[in-house]
Design goal:
Keywords: Activator, ATP-binding, Coiled coil, DNA-binding, Helicase, Hydrolase, Nucleotide-binding, Transcription, Transcription regulation
Helix content: 40-55%
Structural class: alpha/beta
Radius of gyration: 32 Å
Number of strands: 32
GO molecular function: ATP binding; DNA binding; helicase activity; hydrolase activity, acting on acid anhydrides
CATH architecture of the largest domain: 3-Layer(aba) Sandwich
Strand order of the largest sheet: 12-13-11-14-17-10-18
Subunit structure: Interacts with the RNAP. Has a higher affinity for the core RNAP than for the holoenzyme. Its ATPase activity is stimulated by binding to RNAP.
Organism: Congregibacter litoralis KT71
Largest sheet: 7 strands, parallel
Number of helices: 28
Shape: elongated
EC number: 3.6.4.-
């Protein structure tokens, strides 16, 4: 393809963009501005999904100022087209820049009159494609379909609630194992597909980079560019590498470099996602450079998602500082925040009383005391809950988790004071402790006894993990892999994959502490804690690698310890004091803060006060759990998930996805366009590129083919298969390519119809609504594609209700091509008249639909604006920016709805015999 600035091109991958203008060239990339939707897209020049617009003599030309002219001649000057046109009795010259941004080319009318037609299967495919796209546009579930995730109510609720907001700014703080990464991915997926976000930066700990990269690609079909020091060095002087990619993923450590920080701040972003945000140190007297950088980024990026399983780790003030990143106006006074937190228990008690059917005293004055209890509860959560900025689902409320079984393994004491320490391996030579430490021999014996079960082994330090893995491989003959911070990211990913392989993979994965964060190993049931971490939250993170939602089996937690050592002391404190091995606890940081000094004293040298410490810890833990359950945590859980809404979303998604419907449509797509497919069952097939494809709908299919499934269940079970859901980029591209192409626009056939004399004509026409507007306005729900079939006879009578498309499609037969040309020439005037009649009929209906859509859209926007404005008076977590954005969207949406036009998608002429 040859490009020049000023040329007009159409995107055949997304025809709703309208007619684009080439605005920039840099050799390998071309940037095209689409004025109809005010969007700019950048493509690789060698495979851009673009078609050059070149009108021919005799074609109709529509100008930007609304004139319709006839092309008399076409000239080319410096790679740009100049049209000589006739209009209003005179000739004039128009540059291609003057073409209407909403131009339609290769219309069905033109193709039929030129006897350029396709088979009936192609026409039927066009009809089916329009109907499926219409159904998807109306669903209101855009962004939630086709992700390779289980339909869990709490995740769907959070993704829907946050994903539909303009520039959402929230803290996702679900307890370990509930899927914060999936929630973030679903929110992001929805934001990208709706057009609310385009440029996204994800910052994660170095150990989680590849997991996030793979999760975004495998679950959400999002292709992130992985940035590191080398990628930054590749860019030329004066350029900003962050501006070369739309979706960027990098380690938080990358921004220890001031140059990287400056480049990131200089780039424009729509959304920032930060995982494990509690690692960015903040203290009242000492704020880390990383946190300062995050403050600067958060101040200039509209959307912000922060993720942590321990929102109040290192204290309430640090938690407040992270909330201030989301909304500094809302969270500007720590004392006021503390006072607000103290009121949550009151609101929680009120909601409990309303749930019991009671009429509690003390309802806020702005809540109707006579309203239904469920509306009163909803009002309380709207006004006083923290769900607008903080979402925290608890394992106890979500359910579906396996039972934990703790198995202590006491080992005989060693005649050396070194082995009284928590981590004796740090105090002696590696070879010495491998020989002397009884935990090593026990580990070998235990792994052999558990064969062929998968076993995750976690220890505190990388050197310990490295030594153990080498010992198991070389001396014990146990297949194992190491996972620690001294390995490269690629090496860690390979180790995790080797462990996940069922038949020939490693039996054991030996991890340092980083293996206890972020990674998911639900396929294993056995966890061996070779040592114990010094913080309860770290222990919870370790257990959470296996004890996650989706885990189907009981979890066995093995704890070897040397009798009489600090290891036994810490094990008993966790087990008897907090009961942390058997049940999750979100108050770990609070408990440790209360007993840290006493515990450290016992770890140094256990004395008679240890039993009292265990009793005091158990009492304090019980009170803390009860307080959190009755107070803020309970209210927060209510606002973090509406189970009924979450379940309803899951049901609606299942109904729309329907593997039978999707599978039948996929087969129809492949059959008509020439893509080879081999069915493997009702829901899966192998796709291969066909030698004679009529239309390139799946350009990404590799040369040797690939296996796809349209079943969510199969996709979750077979992660090596492609989940080709409705919103998969391949499927979306295929449908927009069909409607954006000439395939099936015109067809001619013959049929026998009882009671109808031979030689009668039927005109079957398909119309849709064309609405060129930014996706972020969400107008397709109000004025969707709305395909309408009109069936006219030769005299213009509408027979649509008498003869269905399906019945006609079953009976219609081919007509010899030579005969078609003769028929079309003879019927040219009638064809033009019938198409004009149908266009006039649909235009009238479109006007009615536009008015109805504008009324519904305006009313719903006004209702939401009024609701948020009223709530803002009592809940400052609602930002004025959100309300103002709704006002602007309403105004822009109403204007855009008025520009909708009818589009003739296809016409079929049928002659009776």
């Amino acid at each position: 393809m040859s490009y020049a600035i000023g040329q007009r091109w159409l995107s055949h991958a997304d025809s709703e963009l309208g007619l684009g203008i080439v605005v920039e060239l840099d050799g390998r990339r071309v940037s095209v501005h689409f004025p109809a939707v005010e969007e700019e897209r950048t493509y690789a020049t060698d495979n851009a999904p673009l078609t050059r617009v070149k009108l021919r003599e005799g074609d109709a030309l529509h100008t930007r100022d609304g004139r319709k002219l006839q092309v008399l001649a076409v000239h080319e000057e410096q790679e740009l087209l100049i049209y000589e046109v006739a209009g209003e009795g005179q000739r004039e010259l128009l540059a291609e820049l003057d073409l209407d941004d909403h131009i339609d080319l290769a219309t069905p009318r033109q193709r039929l009159l030129a006897s350029q037609y396709d088979g009936h299967a192609a026409f039927a495919l066009r009809m089916a494609t329009a109907e499926h796209l219409h159904r998807l546009q109306q669903s209101g579930l855009r962004g939630l379909l086709g992700t390779r995730t289980a339909l869990l109510p709490h995740q769907l609720y959070v993704a829907n609630e946050v994903g539909k907001r303009h520039a959402p700014r929230v803290l996702l703080a679900d307890e370990v194992g509930l899927g914060k990464t999936i929630e973030a991915g679903m929110i992001l997926h929805r934001q990208l597909l709706s057009g609310d976000s385009r440029r996204v930066l994800i910052m994660v700990p170095a150990s989680l980079q590849f997991q996030w990269l793979v999760e975004m690609r495998r679950r959400f079909n999002l292709q992130f560019a992985l940035f590191d020091d080398d990628r930054l060095m590749e860019s030329g002087e004066g350029s900003n590498p962050f501006e070369d990619e739309q979706l960027v993923l990098c380690s938080t450590d990358l921004f220890l470099d001031p140059t990287a920080r400056a480049l990131a701040l200089d780039a424009e972003w729509d959304m920032l996602i930060v995982d494990e945000v509690h690692r960015l140190a903040w203290h009242r007297d000492s704020v880390s450079d990383e946190f300062r950088f995050l403050e600067s980024m958060a101040a200039q990026i509209p959307g912000l998602l922060l993720l942590t399983a321990t929102p109040e780790q290192v204290g309430l003030e640090a938690h407040f500082a992270r909330l201030a990143l989301l909304d500094p106006e809302r969270f500007h006074d720590f004392a006021a925040f503390e006072e607000e937190e103290s009121q949550y228990k009151r609101w929680s008690s009120l909601t409990d009383a309303l749930d019991r059917g009671e009429k509690p005293q003390g309802l806020p004055a702005d809540i109707d005391p006579e309203a239904a209890p469920e509306r009163q509860v909803a009002a309380l959560l709207d006004r006083y809950g923290t769900g607008r900025v903080l979402f925290r689902n608890a394992r106890a409320s979500v359910g579906g988790f396996p039972t934990r079984e703790m198995q202590p393994h006491p080992l005989p004491a060693v005649d050396s004071p070194v082995y009284q320490h928590l981590y004796p391996d740090l105090h002696v030579d590696t070879e010495q402790w491998l020989q002397e430490d009884p935990r090593v021999a026990w580990l070998v014996s235990q792994l052999k006894a558990l064969r062929p079960e998968k076993v995750l082994v976690i220890c505190a330090k990388a050197d310990t993990a490295l030594a153990l893995e080498s010992y198991l491989q070389l001396r014990a003959g146990i297949r194992s892999a190491a996972f620690h911070e001294q390995l490269s990211l690629v090496e860690r990913d390979r180790a995790a994959a080797y462990f996940a392989e069922q038949e020939q993979g490693a039996q054991a994965l030996i991890c340092s502490e980083i293996g206890g964060e972020g990674r998911n190993f639900q396929f294993a049931q056995h966890l061996i804690l070779f040592d114990l971490p010094e913080h309860p939250d770290q222990l919870e993170q370790r257990i959470g690698r296996l004890d996650r939602i989706g885990q189907k089996e009981r979890i066995f937690i093995h704890v070897p310890y040397i009798e009489g050592s600090a290891q036994e002391t810490l094990m008993r404190w966790y087990h008897e004091g907090i009961d942390l091995f058997r049940s999750s606890c979100s108050a770990g940081d609070m408990i440790l803060g209360e007993f840290k000094e006493s515990l450290e004293e016992q770890l140094r040298e256990q004395n008679g006060a240890f039993e009292a410490l265990l009793r005091d810890t158990a009492d304090f833990t019980e009170r803390a759990r009860k307080e959190l359950s009755e107070g803020r945590d309970k209210l927060l859980e209510r606002s973090s998930c509406n189970a009924e809404q979450g379940q309803a979303l899951g049901t609606a998604i299942s109904d729309i996805e329907d593997p039978d419907t999707l599978g039948a449509f996929l087969r129809e797509l492949c059959d008509v366009t020439g893509v080879e497919h081999e069915d493997l069952g009702d829901s899966s097939s192998v796709l291969r590129r066909g030698e004679q494809e009529l239309l390139e709908i799946f350009p990404e299919v590799p040369e040797d083919g690939c296996t796809v499934t349209v079943s969510r269940d199969e996709a979750l079970a077979r992660e090596d298969w492609i989940f080709l859901g409705w919103e998969h980029p391949w499927m979306e591209n295929a449908m927009t390519t069909v409607l954006g192409s000439a395939l099936g626009q015109a067809s001619v056939g013959a049929m026998k119809l009882k009671g109808v004399p031979g030689g009668s004509r039927l005109y079957e026409l398909l119309f849709t609504v064309s609405l060129s507007a930014p996706r972020a306005l969400g107008l397709q729900r109000y004025l969707p594609l709305a395909p309408q079939r009109i069936l006219l006879d030769a005299s213009g009578r509408d027979l649509s209700k008498l003869l269905t498309h399906e019945r006609l499609n079953e009976r219609v037969e081919k007509v010899p091509r030579g005969t078609v040309s003769k028929i079309v020439r003879q019927l040219r005037e009638e064809i033009e008249t019938r198409i004009d009649d149908a266009e006039a009929q649909f235009a009238g209906e479109l006007e009615t639909r536009q008015k109805e859509a504008a009324q519904r859209y305006g009313e719903q926007m006004d209702e939401e604006i009024a609701r948020l404005s009223a709530l803002r008076a009592v809940n400052p977590a609602i930002r004025e920016e959100e309300i103002e954005n709704l006002r602007l969207r309403k105004e822009a949406g109403l204007v855009a709805l008025g520009t909708a036009r009818s589009t003739l998608q296809g016409v079929r002429l049928v002659i009776t015999r």
